[in-house]
Structures are given as C-alpha cells and as structure tokens.
Amino acid sequence: MAMNVASSSGGGGRRGRRKPVVAEINVTPMVDVMLVLLIIFMVSAPMLTVGVPLDLPQTQAKSLENNDQKPIQMSVDIKGKVFINDSEIAINELIPKLKAITDARGGLEERIYLRADKKADYGTVAKVMGLLSGAGFKKLALVTEADQG
C-alpha cells in the first residue's frame, strides 16, 4: 500500500525543494540598533550641559536674539566663586583676563552673559557688574530662567 511519488525534477534529493532567494532587506536589526542609540542619547543628553551648575532665578523677561558668535559666559556660584566660561578665576584677575579674551574676539563691544545663582551673595554679583562696567564693557546681560508659573 505504500506509494512512492517522484519529484518533478526527476533527479530526486533536495534540488527541487530549495526556497527562492528573498530580495528584501531585514530591517529588524537596524531598528533594534536605532532604538538602543535613541535611548543612549536621551539619557546622556541632559548630562552634556556644559557650565557651572547654578540655580538661576526665574523672570518673565523675553530672551535676547542670538548672534552667530558665542558670547562670553560669566558665572557666580553660591559660594561667591567667579568663572569665565567654565574656568574659575580670582576677582582681582577678572578684568585683565576678560580684556585679553575680548581683544581677541571683538573688543569692548563683546556681549557678556552673567549667570548668578539666586542664592549667591548680592554683593559679589554687584562687585562683578561694577568691575565690568568700570572696565568699559557695555553689553552685559543677566541670564535667568523662564518663569514656570
């Protein structure tokens, strides 16, 4: 009662049963890699903020227009330390160092952003602002956060 059915290729074996070649791209591994990269960038992006960690005061003032050139950022932290960009500097060395930087960039018309912690000593912030205005810097802007309420 057993019956043998011969394949149509006539040669027998595995030759006639081969699957056709799939010409589609398997995108599943690429999607997996992209999702992992997305998660890595989402987690690491907040850690890339550069600068002195400060708790800025909140205001309802409008933001200034952005220029192509990055402005000089000065910071005064809660302990009264003064920073130019990310490097700490003594108050008595502030004006000579700042003049050297601005002479290379654009002179006394260079825009300077002053960031001060909201719990920083008001006298230190006022002293820094007085030194800057006394040295002839005219474009000084105080940096704050947008009011959340």
TrEMBL record:
Domain of life: Bacteria
Membrane topology: Single-pass membrane protein; Single-pass type II membrane protein
GO molecular function ontology, one term from the record: transmembrane transporter activity
Keywords tagged on the record: Cell cycle, Cell division, Cell inner membrane, Cell membrane, Membrane, Protein transport, Transmembrane, Transmembrane helix, Transport
Coiled-coil ranges (or none): none
GO CC list: plasma membrane
One GO term of the biological process aspect: cell division
Pfam families: ExbD
UniProt-listed InterPro entries: ExbD, Tol-Pal_TolR
Main subcellular location of this protein, as a coarse class: membrane
Localization: Cell membrane
Family according to the record: Belongs to the ExbD/TolR family.
NCBIfam families on file: tolR
PANTHER family xref list: EXBD MEMBRANE COMPONENT OF PMF-DRIVEN MACROMOLECULE IMPORT SYSTEM, TOL-PAL SYSTEM PROTEIN TOLR
Protein name per its UniProtKB record: Biopolymer transporter ExbD
Species whose genome carries this gene: Bradyrhizobium nanningense
